[in-house]
Design brief:
By secondary structure, the protein is α+β, with helices and mostly antiparallel strands. The protein has one domain. It is built from five helices and seven strands; from the N terminus they run ββββαβββαααα. The chain has a six-stranded antiparallel beta barrel. α4 packs antiparallel against α5 (about 170-190). The longest helix is centred in the C-terminal third of the chain and has 20 residues, at about 170-190. About 20% of the residues are buried.
Length: about 200
């Protein structure tokens, strides 16, 4: 499902997308489709770049506009049909890697620059599981260091959200490995701020 398009970037793996609204589509995405920790993709022919939503921002230029209005908001569409709402939702997307035509995942930094206007799509649970499956069938998260470096203050909650999504998709031995990671993240989150 298409949920938005790329409008800007902060770095080679940190992009900003604008969520589609009712002016862009008859059936726009709901808030659940672009929430924190939602895996997304950008399609380039046979290559798919995979990312995750880690931040959101509301754009509302009308907030400080206290000037008089000629009519109430619902009537503006009839009175001024060219009136465009500039309100919107922006999401931060950190890239995690890519997949090739065979579905094999690479958790390295994608070489391709994602252009402005590129569509952003949600990916289903099976695609998330496949992206995290190594050649031997175990769960992998080789993007972890890039995620921690680029997601800022939201990195630990984001990593925990990813682990929570992966837990039901992996084997018992992988769940045990993920539990160790979760305990380390909980410790860092609780005591890391205090310099312990």
């Amino acid at each position: 499902m298409k949920i938005g398009q790329i409008v800007s970037s902060n770095s080679h793996i940190d992009y900003i997308g604008r969520i589609i609204d009712e002016l862009d589509a008859d059936d726009p995405p709901t808030a659940d489709d672009y929430g924190f920790g939602q895996f997304v993709s950008m399609e380039f022919g046979i290559q798919r770049i995979v990312g995750i939503i880690y931040d959101s921002r509301l754009v509302n230029p009308e907030y400080a506009n206290f000037g008089p209005r000629l009519s109430p908001r619902p009537a503006l569409a009839d009175f001024t049909p060219d009136f465009i709402s500039e309100q919107g939702v922006l999401v931060g997307i950190v890239l995690l890697g890519s997949t090739d035509e065979s579905g094999a995942a690479d958790h390295g930094i994608p070489r391709r620059v994602v252009p402005a206007g590129q569509g952003v799509y949600t990916i289903d649970t099976e695609a998330v599981a496949q992206f995290h499956r190594s050649a031997d069938g175990s769960t992998q998260m080789h993007y972890f260091s890039n995620l921690i470096a680029h997601a800022g203050a939201l990195a630990i909650p984001l990593a925990k959200a990813i682990i929570g999504q992966l837990n039901p998709l992996c084997s018992e031995s992988d769940r045990q490995r993920l539990a160790v990671m979760t305990n380390a993240l909980n410790w860092k989150h609780a005591f890391g701020e205090m310099g312990m």
